[in-house]
TrEMBL record:
This is Error-prone DNA polymerase. It catalyses: DNA(n) + a 2'-deoxyribonucleoside 5'-triphosphate = DNA(n+1) + diphosphate. Gene3D superfamilies: 1.10.150.870. It comes from Mycobacteroides abscessus subsp. bolletii 1513. Belongs to the DNA polymerase type-C family. DnaE2 subfamily.
Length: 701
């Protein structure tokens, strides 16, 4: 069944690849379901399927997100709409949602509900609620009581169930809000309990972006790129990643990954596999990150295996356990487990630990260590305790292998075809850590010229110009326009030629006044020889010249002499209309003032000695408070030269919480930390910065 889905994707030029434990299967690789050779990479088959396993193995498939719906509809058509459905998941109350709903229940106005919830963090806890000015104690009290309670049912991100009989005979089914979809009223655990088989068809934005890259490079540069034939040993790609030049690159664009790359200094594909697995909650909490990096760089050479029998499993990660498969191999080598028993141990030690099974397998493990290697006493205890602690956070190597390939492919396009990479990421939005504004700014820093929208040049989405070296923003990015109307404009232009004037445009395409105004504001009407202000002046009159009215009935208007927009006003207009300023960044207009204050630009931090106190400033692109950071919050600032990672302690966050949560831009004083080229600023003071140009930010866990 999964092969049939993968074959449909391949036959219809839809990028897909298996992930997770399926990568351990040579059969899945031979059938084209997965793209990593498990034999060549020494992956354990028993992680996928063992004789002791009760039930079918999991085979998850990543599908390019922009075409995932085609695959879902194929499954419905192939198996029957009554025999296939998507799995539900339970949405539970987190901090912001709990405060909003409890305020609503107590009769507070909608605006007040929103104001309180927006001042809280996105990190799920209610600790921030007490610090928000004005939230009544009774709202906080009720919100704390319902935290983690179920709120409503949603649709699982990728789970689909297929059955040999009508699903309604087995499980309650309902129509989903999305057209042509049905959804179960049970979640994945309920389905597993009654023996229903679930397949995960997961949408992955990077696969869409890679497909767009391939198409853009072929169309505009005449170069055919086959992902399977990209040289995974190319040094220049690893050199770029070692500089943490990874904005937009799959899986390694986060703050933590960008801080680790210069320290790890990857030089080969397996280093990317480790990078993907290393920056996860488990390895961070388990203390694996720093020991591995120190050993990898030859700083720590005085380490040894607890017992020689552990070398086979841990050699490739320098004695630091990272992967679930290593736990299984250790059980085989150290305690004489069969591969099937090792998988039982992995599952028993996992997140859903069974005390009874654990005790049985523990006795078996100690017996095996003694019989096979004579290991007893304290040494046996240390080995078992290490495995037990590691079991709950180990990352599947198979999963890391499949993700590492996407890391390399995306980095390769960023290095060799930066314009195509930028345009592809813009097409594939929303995805990743960064907004279109940051993606465009990064492309510009790599020498890419970006043009704004143009009704006679743009497609509905971002594309390339000038032999694939420059990016053109799509009409669909313009406020009030959207993809559907943008496509109508493009199709009309292709069918009947370019638009000769604004009245020609509105005479052939029905546009509202707000739509014409947005096109004018974003510079998309500049091809008619009008300035933005001139186009705005006649927008209402032009919108009255509609294709459903008799010619000549529209209102005419004489355009007075209007001054051109200044640089700052034009940049603000670009950002208002499209979210992107194609040829500038807001901080550059304040640079003289910031320089006078002693603010160091982002790229200037590389020359600042470790431990120095500095001022940095920029737009807030995102805030992040990982569960592994013990309450520490990270703020990413961006200026026209690059990005700065700012570390905010718990105490500093409490002092500046309202400003830190709401400010679009900040001036931050702090101390530089330079860890082998990974630079951050530990903040001790925050101040607001007025950019005069709208910017947006995102919050992440």
């Amino acid at each position: 069944m999964v092969y049939d889905i993968a074959k449909f994707c391949h036959d219809n030029n839809i990028l897909c690849q298996g992930r997770g434990s399926a990568v351990n299967s040579a059969v899945c690789y031979a059938l084209g379901v997965t793209s990593i050779d498990p034999v060549e990479n020494g992956l354990l088959f028993e992680r996928f399927l063992s004789v002791a396993r009760d039930g079918e193995p999991d085979i998850d498939i990543d599908i390019e997100s922009d075409r995932r719906e085609e695959v879902i509809q194929y499954v419905y058509t192939k198996h029957g709409r009554d025999k296939a459905a998507q799995v539900a998941n339970t949405i539970t109350y987190r901090g912001r949602m709990a405060v909003r709903d409890m305020a609503k229940a107590l009769g507070f106005a909608q605006g007040q509900q929103d104001a309180w919830s927006k001042q809280m963090g996105h990190w799920g806890g209610l600790a921030d609620a007490a610090a928000v000015d004005g939230i009544p104690p009774q709202v906080i009290h009720l919100a704390q009581q319902i935290k983690d309670f179920p709120r409503h049912m949603g649709i699982h991100s990728g789970g689909m169930v297929m059955c040999d009989r009508p699903l309604a005979d087995v499980v309650p089914v309902e129509w989903a809000r999305m057209e042509n979809r049905s959804v179960l009223q049970w979640d994945k655990d309920d389905c597993a309990a009654v023996g229903l088989v679930k397949f995960d068809l997961l949408g992955l934005g990077m696969l869409s972006a890679l497909h767009y890259c391939i198409d853009l490079v072929a169309e505009h540069k005449g170069i055919t790129v086959d992902l399977a034939h990209i040289d995974l040993k190319e040094p220049a790609v690893y050199e770029m990643l070692a500089r943490a030049d990874s904005v937009g690159v799959f899986q390694v664009e986060s703050r933590a990954q960008m801080a680790t790359l210069p320290r790890l200094k990857p030089t080969k594909f397996f280093d990317l596999v480790v990078e993907v697995a290393l920056i996860r909650p488990g390895p961070i909490q388990g203390g694996s990150v720093h020991p591995y990096i120190r050993r990898y760089n030859g700083i720590d050479t005085n380490w040894e295996y607890e017992h020689p029998s552990m070398e086979r499993a841990l050699k490739k990660t320098l004695g630091v356990p990272l992967f679930q498969e290593q736990l299984m191999q250790l059980a085989v080598d150290v305690a004489g487990f069969t591969p099937a028993e090792s998988d039982q141990l992995r599952r028993a030690m996992g997140s859903k630990r069974s005390p009874e099974r654990m005790e049985r397998l523990r006795a078996r493990f100690y017996e095996g260590m003694q019989n096979l290697h004579g290991i007893t006493g304290e040494k046996a205890d240390r080995i078992y305790e290490k495995l037990y602690a590691f079991a709950n956070f180990g990352f599947p190597e198979s999963h890391a292998q499949s993700f590492a390939s996407l890391v390399f492919y995306s980095a390769w396009f960023k290095l060799h075809h930066p314009a195509a990479f930028c345009a592809a990421l813009l097409r594939a939005q929303p995805m990743g850590f960064y907004s279109p504004q940051s993606l465009v700014a990064d492309a510009r820093r790599h020498g890419v010229t970006v043009h704004g929208p143009d009704v006679n040049a743009s497609l509905s989405y971002a594309t390339l110009e000038n032999q694939g070296l420059e990016v053109r923003i799509g009409l669909g990015a313009v406020r009030h326009v959207g993809a559907e109307l943008a496509q109508k404009i493009v199709e009309e232009r292709k069918a009947h030629g370019p638009f000769g004037s604004l009245l020609d445009l509105t005479g052939r395409i029905q546009l509202t006044t707000p739509q014409v105004e947005a096109l004018a504001t974003g510079g998309a009407l500049g091809c008619f020889g009008m300035s933005r202000r001139e186009a705005l002046w006649v927008a209402g009159a032009a919108a009255a010249q509609r294709p459903d009215r008799l010619p000549g009935v529209g209102v005419s208007s004489r355009i007075p002499g209007l001054p051109e927009m200044g640089e700052v006003t034009r940049a603000a207009a670009d950002v208002w209309a499209t979210g992107v300023s194609p040829d500038s960044y807001p901080t550059q207009f304040l640079r003289a003032r910031l320089d006078a204050m002693g603010v160091v630009p982002a790229k200037g931090l590389f020359g600042v000695p470790d431990g120095s106190r500095v001022l940095v400033a920029g737009a807030v692109t995102h805030r992040q408070r990982p569960a592994t950071a013990a309450g520490v919050t990270f703020i990413n600032l961006e200026d026209e030269t690059g990005m700065v990672n700012v570390v905010c302690s718990v105490g500093l966050w409490a002092r500046y919480r309202k400003l830190a949560v709401t400010a679009r831009a900040l001036i931050i004083r702090g101390q530089v930390q330079n860890a082998s080229g990974a630079i951050s600023v530990v903040a001790d003071q925050l101040r607001p910065l007025d950019l005069q140009i709208r910017s947006t930010s995102r919050d992440f866990r």
